[in-house]
Amino acid sequence: MERLRAVIGFGLAVLSLGAIAWCAVTAQPVPPPASPPWPAETDSWDVSAPRAGPAVERDREALTEVTVAPASAADLAGVPEGRLDERLRQVRVTIVHRLRMDAADSLAGTLRQGAEFPRGMRRFTDDGFGAVKVNGTVLAPAGRLPPLLTTAGGRTTVRFTVTLLRQVRPEELLRLDFNAPTARPLLVVYRKVTLRPGEWTVLRATSIEPDREEPERLEFTVGLYPVSVTLAPDAYGFPDVREEDDFSWATALGVLTAIVLAVLLLRALGGRWWRRRPNRELAAGLGLAAPVILLVAVAEEFTLLAYLMLFVGLPLLALRHAVQVLPSGPQWTPRDALGATGVGVLLAVGMLSWSYRYGQLPGDTLVTGTAVAAAAAAGSAMVLSADLGVRAVVVRLTAFAAGSAVALLALVLWARALATQVYPPDSVRLLLAFCWALLPVAAVAVAVKQWTRGAVVVAVVVSLLVQGWPTEWLDAGSWSRALPEQAVPRIGELELTPLVRGVMGLLLLGFLLLVLRLRRLGAALGATRDSAAESTMIVCLMVAYLAPQGSATLGDINVPLPMLSITALIAWVTARWLLADPHPSVVEPGDQEEHRELIRAALHRRLLLGFEQELYRTGRGRLGAGELTMAEFDRQREAVDTALRGHGSHPETAFATAAGCSPWHNGVHGFIVSLLLSLPFLIVFGVPIGADLSSFVFEARSVIALPAFGFLFGYFYPRIRGTQPMTKALNLMAAALATELSGYVAALAEPDLGAMDKVQVVAIIVGKVALVSIGLGLYWEWRIMHLAGEPWARVRNIRSLRSLATPLLAIMIAAITTAATSAAGQTVDRILRGDETSQQP
């Protein structure tokens, strides 16, 4: 009986695999899309919309004239003052497109409608004639004149004029790229281009056979292919050998920042971490994987190897490390397995629907194959598990087997589509996201010392967000067919490929692990004296202030090196200055009751000091008037001195303690309050945006950088310089202000920037830092009294002008900052938000 059940069970399993193999063999290659899909809505300027008639109308002629000339004062009148540099060359590129056609041509009537001007005109010229791109710093957006139509002798001519303003270095070459037209149907097959270089010389011409070639004029005919022309300035002599400084401050700062971060990271991990063998193996694995992943930056032929290392090698390495470190494996229940199977079935249904929609398998074949595979797998699991005798277990195994068969069939069909290079565009990213999710799952499990279901769900969601926002995942074309040329999102010059997104997500994960380490170390009161916690905190602070400013080559090696902002180094220096050694007279309370006693003793001592001051102030008058004898005065003075000696020699050290709370608890309070106080400045600095979670967090550095100082203030409050909350807050203000202003030194040093603009920039930065620091100090003063069960009025009396000085100063700073913010112009906004130097015309 047992043998018969085994034969039947394995026979059904083979039948299920056979059905899957049959579907895989029967599947047909999906034909690639012939052209990009038509937009849902069209307008009169959209030349890519389907039209009646032949693909290209006869008797059409397209002419493009490009003139390069120095930009005049009138051209530069609308350019922000801080963007112009007198040491550079300002260039005006004028592009004139002329389209000649029969007066009866239907396109002439369409152009006369002129809907959605000027946005539609840009699409018409770029798609119909081919976009013309010019390198250099963009001084202003492209200017477009209205189209001019003239009709004479049965011919209609339409003229489009576009003006581009660029700024280049004296020795920089000017490159003009004539892209191929993308409109379908085509306006014309061939178009004639006339280039007038002016004060420039044609140095290189790619894919060009000149029709006319003169020093001041170049004419050529171009078809459906891109053309590039590079110009060199006439008035600049290029030396045979360029003498360059051997020392570069930007490169030196980048190397120094990397060294400081590496040393601090080693100190943050500590000696105990390195003494464990699994940790050393993990470090060795990461050290071997990093060059493989980064090698693709200089050698694109290693792209596949980099993908395998990042999305397969590193997740397996992380899982192996987690299994070695954790005392027990994950305690997954049958419900967890069924839940994962359900997710797999949902994804499989999506892939099977794609296979049916695009004809990879006929509908009847797909339904039959799926049903046979699922039913046979379920029957095999039922037969093989019947001897267990537990109905619930048999049902779960049956459901798991059926779902696994459906998922396996979808995976096989996806592999067939991938082999023919026609597949759902986002399916690869989805698979990579699930593979990458193993990294945060294992990392969080090691950080919290256990496997948790919530961490798995959050890790999968975060992994999907790292590869794109939901709006991108749910795009209409995400699950259509792979297009030949898909637009890749960018951050500046960096293309956000899945590999780049994975690396950025890995850096974000590393930052999160450092924060979790601070949480674990900050559970004990002694963490404020721990060098590992201090190093971890400074690394997080430096990372929050990192700001790549381009790249340079290191020595003679052609390896790009990111140039990091000096703010990270200033943050390191100021944090080291801010974290002084704990005062020897400060006694840390072990709990809230001890904190309450220390605060009451401090308030008592403050009362005695006030009484002593009042005694000396009024004693002279009372002695002279005979109201008080010298013996009575000495007796009162000695009583006050005796009472003061009973409270120690150093005043009010209770206000410099952690108030009986853990460093992590205090740090979170400092971060939240600082974040709330800095949120109004988003009006000035802008709301963070990004194509995915990693780029969004990167753009949000300006939002969390100053609150990171607030977290440092709360976490290491007993070590912050000063013995009072407001004294410590003023020291925090000095450190944060030096760090924040260091990022604007280069902009403030610009000679073309107006003095008023510089004053506004400094006022906004100073106001932001001062308001956050003073507000945090006032909150901390209230919090210390609140934890002690005492009213705040005992230390800050609203009836005293001296006590009101600090709140009034905060209000005045907020008012000045508001005035500077409302008066800020385009130049100030550009400095605060960062200049965009790579706009498209």
Write a concise keyword list for the protein shown above.
single chain, 841 residues, 27 helices, 16 strands, 13% strand, disordered C terminus, membrane, transmembrane helix
Give a structural overview.
- The chain is of the alpha+beta class and 841 residues long.
- Among the domains are: 1-30 and 331-421, no CATH class; 61-233, no CATH class; 587-833, no CATH class.
- Helix content is 54%, strand content 13%.
- It contains 27 helices and 16 strands.
- The strands form 4 sheets. Strands 1, 2, 4, 5, 6, 8, 10 and 11 form an 8-stranded mixed beta sheet that branches.
- Mean pLDDT is 80; it is low at 35-45, 49-57, 554-558 and 836-841.
- The chain crosses the membrane at residues 247-270, 282-299, 305-323, 335-354, 366-386, 393-415, 427-447, 454-470, 499-518, 671-690, 696-717, 729-749, 761-780, 801-824.
- This is ABC transporter permease.
Please sum up the structure shown.
Strand 15 (548-554) and strand 16 form a beta hairpin. Among the domains are: 1-30 and 331-421, no CATH class; 61-233, no CATH class; 587-833, no CATH class.
Distance between the termini: 79 Å
**Oligomer kind:** single chain
The number of helices is: 27
The major β-sheet equals: 8 strands, mixed
Percentage of residues assigned to helices: 40-55%
The total of beta strands comes to 16
- Average predicted confidence as pLDDT: 80
Transmembrane segments: 247-270, 282-299, 305-323, 335-354, 366-386, 393-415, 427-447, 454-470, 499-518, 671-690, 696-717, 729-749, 761-780, 801-824
Signal peptide: 1-21
Protein name: ABC transporter permease
Keywords: Membrane, Signal, Transmembrane, Transmembrane helix
